[in-house]
Predict the 3D structure of the following.
Amino acid sequence: MALTDNTVVTREMVYEWLVAFNKSKQKDLRKYLEGKLAGQTPLVDTRGRDGRDATTPLIDLILDDAKSYGVLDGE
Amino acid sequence: MASNDPPAFQITTQGWAAGTNIREGVNFMAPNQGRPMENIVLDERGVAKKRLGCHNRGAFGADPDRVLSMYTFYRGVGVIPQVLMHTTAGTLMYSVNPLNIPCTWTTITTGLSGTVPLTFETFNNKVYFGNGVDPFSSWDGTSYVTYPSAPKGRYHRLWKDTMWISGVTGYNDRVYSSAAGDAETWPVPNFIDIGRGDGDTVQALATDGQYLIVGKREKTATIYDPVVMSNRIVDYEKGFESHFAVAQYESEVFFLSRRGICRYLGDSPSQIISDGIDPMFDSLILELDQLTMATAYTFENKIGFAIPERGSSTNSIVVEYYPRLGGLTAFGTRSIGPFGFHRMPTQCFTRWRWLKDDMLFASHTTANIFLRVFAAVGTDDGVPFKAVVQTPFFDMGDPLNTKYLRYLRLICSGRFDLLIYRNYDPGIYRTILVDASAVSDSWNDQERWGEGYWGRDAWLKDIEKTNVDAYGRSFSFRFQDAQETDTNIRMVWVGDKGNEVPMGEWAIYGLSADGSVLGRR
């Protein structure tokens, strides 16, 4: 599915990406996810969240929470 | 002419409206407190009554199975609510009809964790659940669905039309939210860390309706904006011990913290309300390692917290609180109400209401048995239990002189023993059997008009005991039964109609005594 500016990226989508990800290339995860996001890397309003700037790139939030999906190696 | 008779005195007990007190020195207790107090209910202000028992509603699963968590799944008007039960066999079951004895159980799924309890929330006509080990799942009464991509968390709470999850392994501080109005869609950026990396761990999610309460073990925060997740710490030194030991009652949230039972106040640190039972919150008395499995219930006018004592792997003592017996302040808020204790074989609770029935169900601590709590029975699953309540010591305002106790009257019902203690001595000084259950001389067909009493036996009696013949500087009175297995009735007057309501075997309304001051002995 092609992403647009209005696409809400859900955990379901990221879960499928991570399942398909080659786990032996962990260092390439950011690049892989950026490819999946197809250039759609919006800034998320994180002003209410401690320790973050007023906005945070979506890709950073995905990477921060990637292990919670339980599908990456080493879990 | 002055009398040479020794000065006389009279005393009357002051009831137990203030509940149990294990904090004050024995000689500093208020006259309307009790110690010890166990298996006593205080629902009629000032009166101490033996509680009702636990009725066996049948077995579930196999003999070794125990319940990890229970939940009532309400499905709207006209549809019988299901009780969901997660057991140590890793099975999730639902009741066909809890009114049936024995209650029959149907399996929803197997292969779940047998140690980590599921937590549940109802939303969009489904119950959603998870435990941090098994996938987030739903049950609509007939279909079981899993959502592997959703956060796999231990704690679930519905707030602001959104499902919130915490307790994901490796993310001790993180709280996730679903899309608004949809617990099956989880936007990627919807999470926040509360006190990130502070070494503490989220132990519970709760809500007062206004805010999401994030209970870490040593502090409490609220999320007050569900969109940008704005949050603040509301209590920097009191947290939550168990997601299951949170109770909402009359617009207030009560919870178990390491320091005691707390009342959540929203904008200011939570208030500890269990001052009178403070000494029990000690690592030598409670099994701190098992407090995550402590549970709570709200039923009728009381809130109960089932807590494990030291050395116990199951909840062994129930702390019961009566919020509505706390007085009203000038501002219209409630002051702190009384506490009592129960020992019941109950681990997890769920309240179930359907048509004319409103019941509290529980799981047995040491058997695969489903129980109805406070049922009209006098035993706990067939096992007799004792109720006990004791007054403070009364010295009649004179701690020095010895007194002679001559005569007693009791307003009471049922059958129990009156034990008299004196001079703060823990040894029993006198034992008197009180039997107000014996049928008095009621009219029968062998008698004539004007002979004996007309009608049924009185449910409440004023009886006397002469020749008490007790000496001491101070006296305390303990009321307890020899594990009687009967039940009794109490009268609830609605207008001029007296409604007979089941209660435990006996009740003590008050004791009065008279005697004489003898002098220094």
In short: The mean pLDDT of chain B is 93. Chain B is about 0% helix and 45% strand. Chain B touches chain A at residues 147-152, 168, 170-171, 174, 179, 185-189, 191-196, 225, 228-231 (CB under 8 Å). The two ends of chain B are 27 Å apart (CA to CA).
